[in-house]
Amino acid sequence: MKTLYYLMAVMGLSVNSFGETPRPNIVLVMADDQGWGQVGYYGHPKLKTPNLDAMSEAGIRFDRFYAAGAVCSPTRASVLTGRTHNRTGVPAHGNNLCLQEKTLPQALRKAGYTTALFGKWHLNGVRGPGVPILGNDANHPGKYGFDQWLGTSNFFDLNPLMSRNGKFEEFQGDSSNIVVAEALKFMRQQKDEPFLAVIWYGSPHSPMRALEEDRGDLPDDKVGNHLGEIVGIDRSIGTLRKGLRELGIEKNTLVWYCSDNGGLDYDPDACGGLRGHKSSLFEGGIRVPCIVEWPGKIQPVITAFPASTMDMMPTIMDLLSLPEDSMLTVRDGESLLPLFKGETSKRQHPIPFVFQLKAALIDGDYKLLTNNKNKDGEWKLYNLKDDPAETQDLSGQFPERFEEMKAQAMAVMASVDASAAGRDYPEGKIVQTPRRAFWWELEAYEPHFETFFQRPEYSGLKKKAMKARK
What we know:
Blueprint (H helix, E strand, L loop, with lengths): L1 H7 L16 E7 L18 H9 L1 E7 L5 H10 L22 H7 L3 E7 L5 E2 L20 E5 L8 E4 L2 E4 L4 H16 L4 E6 L11 H4 L6 H26 L5 E7 L23 H4 E7 L7 E3 L3 E2 L3 H8 L17 H4 L10 E5 L2 E6 L2 E5 L9 E4 L15 H22 L16 E2 L10 H4 L9 H7 L2
Helix pairs in contact: 1-11, 2-7, 5-7
């Protein structure tokens, strides 16, 4: 019990004013499949990201920041809850977030914030290439505390068809720049009152169709378009930062940028030399680029402090001095506010990961990992400071640390299993039947098939849809 309490104990949400800004605007930006190495400031040989580079020089650059999940939906669930995704009803991509979770937008709305989502959702249990979210979807963003939303069920690309609070709208251009432009319209309307804007890109995920101006000298192939989409993301970051300055709210706005999982294997430089890629719990699958910028409040620094998407909600709760019950009692993230204040800080709890049969635990420089949690002999121990590529198993060299971390990991997995069964909720069980289905299998989407199949991003799915609906 002591080990479990150490891992899961709630850190007190201290009273804090953070200077003269008691209620800053919060902007959370997330790329889709951008690897740790796919930024200019880490020296990618083909990719230039001047706006992300400038942002990294103006804020906190996290060199060891982790997506809670090795794929997209799980990480998104962790951002909104401060919990590892398996607790929240999202063990893999395409699962719906449990409606009994306490979420970040719900907490901020109670604190007087206006909340909005722009872009990829993928927490409503709808799989397949992104389609507009239906207004009567039982798990649309509004069900989790977003006052406004413009989004798609999953990834989206050039000239997207999206849904604004349930009403379909067509757009022209690069999707990343579209959602930033729409987010800035929202910010302009809300600039005199505090807001939460969540911007979740659909890029550089497949189908990877970059604008020619963003691809530049890169080849017109999969890798060239993939990198070109990151150039488009970078361009949108420049637009966002400039827009905040033009609105005069940049000093009252915290912007937090990261990716939802590690890079893809067809760009050899996607993960910056780390082992593994998306869907792996090796560093290449979960370590992602991360920058936090807040002009005048957060001083520029590069840190190797290990942090995670699970820390985002606890940090914001702490920053705003929100009630402790804004979150569920069992949580996995912790506040990074001391780090934001420039204080020398040590992480209070290890960072846990559970994905399918894989599990990992990061405690300082050490990482415990297994690709099959059901096989006792599969666990390995690595020192990430000395061996970031995870090549040398140290379990035999440091048996006491190995056994201690393994006991902690087993306690986490037992706790996660209890959460997944609904034990953290007042009802003691999951109330809503979970959903994980392709949109062409859902009757609610059938009236829109004729519209969808005239569009290039869905045309190849017509036969599959007709077969599913017979």
